[in-house]
Amino acid sequence: MDRLWTNARIATMAGPGLGMIEHGAVAARGGRIAWVGPVGEAPAAAETIDCEGRWITPGLVDCHTHLIHGGDRAHEFELRLQGASYEEIARAGGGIVSTMRATRKAGEAELVASALPRLDALIAEGATTVEVKSGYGLSLDDELKMLRAAQALGRERPVRIATTFLGAHALPPEYADDRAGYIDLICEEMIPALGSLADAVDAFCEGIGFTPDETRRVFETAKAHGLRVKLHAEQLSNQHGAALAASYSALSADHLEYLDEAGIAAMAKSGTVATLLPGAYYFVRETKLPPIQALRDAGVTIALATDCNPGTSPLTSLLLVMNMGATLFRLTVEECLAGVTREAARALGLQTEIGTIEPGKFCDLAIWDIERPAELVYRMGLNPLHARVFKGIWKGV
CA–CA separation, 69 vs 72, rounded Å? Predict the structure, then answer.
């Protein structure tokens, strides 16, 4: 074995419950978990690290972010404080199109540099995998620029970056009178040009976004190019996007405040993860809760994410996301922890590689100065991370 973390309490997240091991140890070899179990049965290793009774969880996973973008939208925050709605701001030329302008002006290196502090904040709280979407370029060259910048983040920092193409995020001004033309651009030029730049394709299916028919065409093209899909669905209204996403075996449907029973049933059947974004719910002062109990009853798995973006969730803390998931959505401690580990990995299609502490998976760990796992959900504004492990490499903080 290369490395052994011993004298730890471990929440493997492999079940049942938190999958807890008291007096446990984790061994790594070649960047992957080779063994996990009781201290007394631990194998010998070239290096042994005494965790001194600390808790170990899987490295945290942020499965929905818009980390790459130009500028910010603090002025829109002020407008909302004065009573303007998200939709009113968007229809007046703000919102996504405002960020589009700033993103188009920025060079690739500038986008990377501006995103690194946001990424560093996530890493400092134990994140080892972060999804990053495009969607603020809205032209072929600018969307590809965003995806290259996103991938560059994974070379700048020891973190796994999953990239998602979100060309169907908003209608760019030059296509204001030609919606069909922009969908043609996405399907005939953008998606075919993605190559290895994107792991999945997303869309914003909403009254101020794209219709179910437009989304369906984007999904058909994604599937034809061997790309998995996911969807911003039912955030502001019920467009039946979740059921549409489920019909394409989507990895996840995200937001879901206006999700109906048919959508829940479709997601349960397809295994599509419900990714809840309490930061956006809080920031835009939403009042309609996602149907949490109905999701539970149907057996739909629930993930949590920051939705880090400049307009509706400028949030870079998965610890705060867990607290919001508990306080705003009444999720349990187990649901919150699973939501940023096991189920977040599932929402990225990476559940066989990360998200739990099991042999064969990448050795991505977060080591915490806490007495019980509930502290990770309970506290606000305190970061108890002691050390972070990415692919078996130990990094103290």
Answer: 8
